[in-house]
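ARCHIVE CARD
CATEGORY: sequence design from structure
SOURCE FIELD: tokenized fold
FIELD CONTENT:
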């Protein structure tokens, strides 16, 4: 404890007893320069220690005045005009002139820093919350609290990321499962329907194609389809041109007048005979 604190125990401000400097005997500019010169030369005494909070990750800080001498200065003319309690005191290290009590305050202290830091943290928190709000799940309304742009996937492979207008991982996962299930059910229904239709003209397999093949139809085949997808592809690869069914014979045509022929391709054969007359067909 400084010896003078025992002598004047009422002192509550940090640092040594303040020093008041009153200048006179020159013009206003010269006096201002003199005060400034004294301030510059004595800066080490009154400036205080610059402190920072490393864990706050900012360039801001505050000053500790425990080992500093607060210095206030004025001119004799101002003192005579306003008296010692008037707003005449310049505190070294601050700008403007204050009353004596105000001039001895230390506005750039830890408390002021804490207020600025709290405001910064509020702002960061709000920005973070706005970002989280933008990532609300469109299915369940879940707003994430912490990490939001998490990448999910097998072996580091990115399959899904939470994004604005997207879903939380659970809903994303549930939806994918549902879509897969629906696709599977649709395929099963298509398989059943296609198995009941007339077969592929060329390979006599299901008109929907081989089960599990890449080309397998995922919906019911259109009624005019004649070949399974594999045979269609093979025909295209070999550049064979459109499939032409054998034209109905005269005998078949006569029989058809009496009763509908027991031939699942009959109608297409009649149609093909019209579209591709026999004389035009390649041999
Ligand atoms: Zn969700
Ligand atoms: Zn086929």
């Amino acid at each position: 404890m400084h010896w003078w604190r025992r002598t004047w125990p009422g002192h509550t401000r940090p640092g040594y007893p303040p020093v008041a400097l009153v200048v006179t005997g020159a013009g206003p500019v010269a006096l201002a320069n003199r005060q400034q010169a004294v301030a510059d030369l004595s800066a080490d005494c009154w400036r205080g220690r610059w402190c920072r909070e490393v864990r706050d990750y900012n360039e801001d800080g505050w000053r500790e005045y425990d080992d500093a001498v607060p210095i206030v200065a004025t001119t004799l003319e101002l003192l005579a005009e306003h008296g010692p309690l008037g707003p005449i005191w310049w505190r070294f290290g601050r700008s403007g002139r204050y009353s004596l009590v105000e001039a001895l305050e230390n506005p750039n202290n830890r408390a002021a820093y804490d207020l600025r830091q709290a405001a910064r943290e509020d702002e960061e928190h709000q920005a973070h919350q706005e970002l989280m709000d933008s990532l609300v799940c469109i299915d369940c309304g879940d707003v994430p609290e912490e990490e939001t742009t998490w990448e999910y996937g097998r072996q580091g492979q990115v399959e899904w990321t939470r994004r604005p207008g997207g879903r939380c991982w659970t809903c994303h996962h549930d939806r994918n499962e549902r879509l897969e299930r629906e696709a599977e059910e649709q395929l099963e229904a298509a398989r059943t329907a296609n198995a009941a239709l007339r077969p592929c003209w060329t390979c006599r397999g299901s008109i929907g194609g081989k089960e599990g093949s890449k080309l397998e139809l995922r919906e019911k085949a259109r009624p005019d389809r004649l070949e399974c997808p594999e045979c269609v592809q093979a025909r295209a690869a070999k550049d064979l041109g459109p499939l032409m069914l054998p034209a109905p014979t005269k005998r078949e045509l006569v029989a058809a007048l009496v009763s509908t022929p027991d031939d699942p391709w009959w109608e297409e054969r009649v149609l093909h005979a019209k579209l591709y007359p026999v004389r035009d067909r390649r041999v």
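CARD ANNOTATION: The first helix runs from residue 3 to 7. Residues 167-243 form one domain.
SHELF: design records, drawer C
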